[in-house]
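Hey, quick one: can you model this chain's 3D structure?
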Amino acid sequence: MKKLIIIAAIAFILLVIAFVVVRCRSVSSANNSADAIPLNLSMETSAAEIVEHIKIGWNLGNTLDPVNLFWLPENARLSQFESAWGNPVTTQAMIDAVKNAGFNALRIPVSWSKVVDDQYNIRADWMERVIQVVNYGVSNDMFIILNTHHDESIFKFMDAEMEESAKAFQRIWEQIAFTFRDYDIKLMFEGLNEPRTVGSSMEWNGGTPEEHRNLNIMNQLFVDTVRAGGGNNEKRVLLVPTYAASATSAAMNALVIPNDPKNTNNKIIVSIHAYEPYNFALNENSPVNTWSNVNASDTWPIIERVNRMYDMYVSRGIPVILGELGALNKNNEDARAQWAEYYISYAKSRGIKCFWWDDGGNFLLLNRRAGVFTYPQIVEALIRGAEQ
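Sure thing. Here's the predicted structure for all 388 residues.
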């Protein structure tokens, strides 16, 4: 009898252990479901599906995009270029920290005009460095956007300058496309960043018909050039901007989605930037440092811009990415966190995904030298908004 009691007790204990193990596995699986479910992506995956899988993105701002830095010599070292605006040279650990914080997408702004010869051939060492940084994102299994950034000195949109502009644009994208031709669907190309005529009266007011026409020509040239770039470029997802990446009606109405005959399913995303409300988010000269999600005057600029993107594009099956947004640091982390959660969640509700502009300065989130996030409330709010 005693032996039977011992056996029964052991059996009961084993059953309890088994239940606990199964329960723990179940909870773990539920908590990590987003990572546990394979994405099942291929080069046939549409742009809309890619946007659906993007959670939230982070910009490696003011790093590989150095321009108007007249103190730099023509043949400056790579580290001089990369740290010219005060940020340290990018490391794998920095991008690891971004991924570990919950961001699954990385936008890498790159300027090319300072590293080309008179025939627009890109310096080999610069291209190798760009490859290294892209691979930091690849090793973290992130969605990556690679672009041309701050190259207004060679990419221009007035009739008199279009011949040389198109020549420069095509030659640079031929080299980028060829270099990254074998990268998979998670690497996307963005043809231009905030394309505009610097200093013009319409620079931030939607542009002119002449500029609109020429931007549409450049966007089409971008698609054609990448599609001819070999490898996976025939099916790669591509981003095209409005004039100045603006969310104004004038800029959005003027954009013509490029013809892409090699793809029957949509491979084009519209790229827009919107720092709203302006006085709170972007205007350095404004004292406005408060924001509330119960104040209609605070929320309306976000709602109006996002709804316009939805009505113009998303509702017609054309995905949109907000490639840049952010709110200036005005010693107001609480307000910026509330703003961030609202903005990200509202954009998501309209099918639009967002990338925070981290310049290492007034829009800083990640202290790249220390490897920690300076404003954790904002990071947590961004992730919450993306998960709602």
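One thing worth noting: The beta strands are 57-60, 105-108, 143-147, 187-190, 238-241, 268-273, 320-325, 353-358, 366-367, 372-373.
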